[in-house]
Structure prediction request, 697 residues.
Amino acid sequence: MFIFGNVAANKQSRYAGQLILTWIFTSKIHGWHPCGRFLMYSLIIVWIWWNIRHEMSHYVSVRQEFLVSHAHSSTAQACTVLVTGIPPKHLSEAALTRLFSHFPGGVRKVWINRDLKDIPDLYNRRLKACNMLESAGTSLLKSAIKRNYKKQKNAEKTGNKDSNSASDPEVARGVLMEELVPRQKRPSHRLPPFSWMPFSLPLVGKKVDTIEWARDQVHELNTQLEQRREVLAHDIARTTAAEAETTVRTHHIGAGKLSIALPSVPVTIPLVGTLPAVDFSDQTYPPANGAFILFNKQIAAHMAAQTLSHHEPYRMSTSLKYIEVAPEDVIWDNLVMNPYERKIWFALSWAATIGLIILWAIPGQSHMIQNGDEV
Amino acid sequence: MTFVGFISNIHAVCHTYKWLGWVCKAPGIIVNLIQGFASTVLLVLLFMLVPIILRILARLEGIPQKTGVELTLMDRFFMFQVIVSASCPALNQSSYKNTSERLSGRHIFVWYYRVFTWSSESPDGSSVTSGSEPTKILDVLLDVGILSLSYLRRCLIPGYRFIILQGLAGTATGFLQIGPLVIYYVKITLLASSPRSVYAIKYSPRTSEWGTLFPRVTQLVVIMLGYSIISPIINGLAFAAFLLFYFLYKYLFTWVHDQPPSSDTGGLFFPKAIQHIFVGLYVQQVCLCALFFLAENDHHKFSALPEGALVVILIIFTVSFV
Prediction:
């Protein structure tokens, strides 16, 4: 809009070439040689380059300072490497400790990611029950206070004073509870009509007292989790033991989302060749794909992440190792994906992204600002 | 998008399509409401959905870290921002309108075409032929180049407006924080079921979503760089906008947003943002290169070929600078 004004109507045809150059700087000076403009343009570009370089070198030094600062480097996060795509031969705490022990400071601890089957589900259910218990407790307290307040007011009006005559403390407590909040007024909810349903429906299904139900649930899930944790501890102890180092696991395919039942016979995939499937049948919770390795020194973590750990493709390669890993930051569902599976998902995900961009950029869209103008 | 464009022009469309005839018979206020309000709301919703969908897609990629997902989201969202903002919106809207309106809508388009091609014919947009001498192939090449250039030119005005809009409205909403305030009251009335949840709602600081925050700013940088040479007025506007953004983010990062250590990458978003700036540099240089190559002098000769060649060298330098 500012540029159009510079164009004199009668000079359009004669100075078209000159005009284009004029736009370049919107200068009204017509005597400028194109070379001069080019030089000025180059100066601007060089200035931008200089800025980028300057900012990047500043960034590098700041990042370095931050990473090695005591506050950061002393955290477990700074010393932990997440390694994925581990070949089954190395999928044991002992083997990984031995493999990475040559880095300065050595390995402090190794956690192997395992296919935990129903443990996460149980854990989530327990967490949900805990939250429900907490909410129900709060709302019970609230309604008790409300009712008590009302009752006291009524009592003041009528002048009645109630007496609690029960001698047994347990019975007295029950009576008091019934008095404060009657059974029907206690927080309750409905269970899903069928066990496979993820949510409950109104008016259908069994109605339960939330507090009692949640308490039972927490207790039941606690015992179940404990049982499973014992088995898990047994599995871990087994692979940590020196005996596991010598166990030759010839069959191999990284346990992933797709591998439901791993065949114990070698699988032949065209072009890829023979990929033996690993047999982890001796363990209830078999290792899956990745491990967290906590080093004693931060420098060891960075070195481990940057060096080549295995000669085969997608086996602990540099792109499959992650530094600065914190438990809250991990996406556990993605951790069990094997590297080949990830390639497929990568392609699908980017294809969808590009499709979305094309869809949104299709002509026919009306830009908001423009639209407002047109209306 | 097509649907939104369709709705925003529904009044014009209903004359052309029989099955939409009832729209024209409807009371004017309803049609206006649909045309103005609904289309805008739909558009805003569509653009609000994008980061959410992209984040889900980024998660599907299989990166086992949330920060890693944010990093790839940054690439995706930047791509989206640049491509969608570069696609020229207003040009196509006019296709729904009648001929005279279409002419006025494409006036600038045709005008540029004439300037570049020295066409002596009337600017009706249909019969535009270039000068005389160049061969047929060169002619076609020129046409393509000029078409894309004028297409780019046509976007200039949204470019200005976008910078001003972001610089003023963007920073103002950033300071106002009205959205989080409303969300806070909604949460505290609906979700506060236990002391723990009340505490979480009241005292947990908000975190920045770097994957979408950075591209919004780098997009401005790209627009600014792209237009900085061919229409330098944008430099001043961008300066003002970025000054306001500086104040905004200084305030937000000091007082509002928190960075929990678990989601700390040690600043990995910054080099990515710098890389994205190079997109702006390329756009700028390619445009300038085209302008130099297409410049002609009085004798229908290309007058700025050496400069164009030098810009090509500059592009090569820029590529190697990365």
